[in-house]
Amino acid sequence: WDEEDGFYYDHLLSGGNSTPLKVRSLVGLIPLCTPVVLDERQIDKLPGFKRRTQWYLNNRTDMAKQMTYLNRVCPDGENYGLRLLALPNLERLQRMLQKMLDENEFLSPYGIRSLSAKHRDEPFVMNCNGEHLEVRYVPGESDTYMFGGNSNWRGPVWLPINFLLVESLRIYYQFYGDSLTVECPTGSGKMCNLSEVADEIQSRLISIFTLDKSGVRPGQSHDAKFANDPAWQDLVLFYEYFHGDDGSGLGASHQTGWTALVATLLEQQAARPS
User: Fold this and answer.
1) How far, in Å, CA of 230 to CA of 38, rounded?
2) What's the pLDDT tens digit per position in 1-15?
3) What is the rounded distance in angstroms from the CA atom of residue 230 to the CA atom of residue 222?
4) How far apart are alpha carbons 204 and 188 in whole angstroms?
5) Could you give the CA distance from residue 270 to residue 274 in angstroms, rounded to a whole number?
């Protein structure tokens, strides 16, 4: 965790020294996918777990304050409440969401990018053994032959991690309810609870596969036959990942192994009250 930036980074360990690699990527958002909500009545049935938990809270305050370690919320009129276990504490969660929901960083019109768009103009640069290295935001296919010409984690939108982020936000909402709101998108002045934030990301992901104002599905916009031909445009392709700026499909197709998760998102969207 980097206190100044309000974000998690990878570190390079060498000779006993730890050097932060300050790349704003999904690496720093994965800690958001850790929430577990427990009912106190369940905890009471596990006396050993309850005893060890209390010992940890009493004796490892240095660690407990850095995470959400079974914080408690109790609905009005109820004796029992809910406990939240999560890696980031509340302050860190809010700071991470500020960056994740920034359209100049992670929040694409089509979901959460794998790398912050901040690195489009501000690449991460590192000199190692006389070699100049950099990581730059690339929203689509690679612009270099490095790693076999594949840089698909340097900007595009991936359904699996987006799905996990949406699900995690709903778990956080189960605990915090309307008591926690964040600006979504960052800088818009619009305050949303975390369920509404999940809905917003879900809606952007779904829009990859639905007709836009021009009558084209963004995920198929780069293929004239699938974009415009009436005989083909309703044959939806499940691409491996999607362009971080325009939503067009990239990589393997059909990649139903994970991109078909959009069907679950559609089902969830349809089930929510309008």
Assistant:
1) 50
2) 999 999 999 998 888
3) 16
4) 16
5) 9
